[in-house]
């Protein structure tokens, strides 16, 4: 995904780009999508997430399941203050999650 690719979709609330063979995300690919609350990127070919991937202040649900991640860094999720749901299921190559990422899970609202 190239920088600014979705910049004209400022009012969009839901984006489903699952099953698109996406392997790389440029910094700023989601720039300007300030109203996005749900992003589905399941079953792509993402191996890593750059630190400035998600400037999405309203995002509440992020589905990254089925991607071949090897490791995840805390910086990849720093700009998601309202995130409530993160799906990493079926990321079979995921071998390491940075310890700081667990802070995100602790501060995430839980539904019992």
UniProtKB/TrEMBL annotation:
UniProt KW keywords: Cell membrane, Disulfide bond, Ion channel, Ion transport, Leucine-rich repeat, Membrane, Repeat, Signal, Transmembrane, Transmembrane helix, Transport
GO biological process, one term: monoatomic ion transmembrane transport
Keyword S-adenosyl-L-methionine (UniProt): no
Major localisation: membrane
Subcellular location: Cell membrane
Membrane association type: Single-pass membrane protein
Pfam families referenced in this protein's UniProt entry, alphabetically: LRR_8
Statement: the UniProt record of this protein carries the keyword Disulfide bond: yes
InterPro entries (UniProt xref): KCNMA1_auxiliary, Leu-rich_rpt, Leu-rich_rpt_typical-subtyp, LRR_dom_sf
GO CC terms, sorted: plasma membrane
Source superkingdom: Eukaryota
PANTHER family for the chain: GH08155P, LD45603P-RELATED
Name of this protein: Leucine Rich repeat-containing domain protein
Protein's organism: Oesophagostomum dentatum (Nodular worm)
């Amino acid at each position: 995904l190239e920088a600014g690719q979705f910049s004209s979709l400022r009012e969009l609330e839901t984006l489903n780009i699952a099953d698109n063979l996406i392997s790389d995300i440029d910094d700023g690919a989601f720039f300007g999508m300030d109203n996005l609350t749900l992003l589905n990127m399941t079953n792509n070919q993402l191996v890593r997430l750059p630190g400035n991937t998600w400037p999405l202040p309203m995002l509440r649900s992020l589905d990254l399941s089925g991607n071949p991640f090897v490791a995840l860094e805390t910086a990849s999720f720093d700009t998601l203050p309202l995130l409530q749901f993160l799906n990493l299921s079926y990321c079979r190559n995921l071998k390491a999650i940075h310890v700081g990422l667990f802070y995100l899970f602790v501060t995430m609202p839980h539904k019992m």
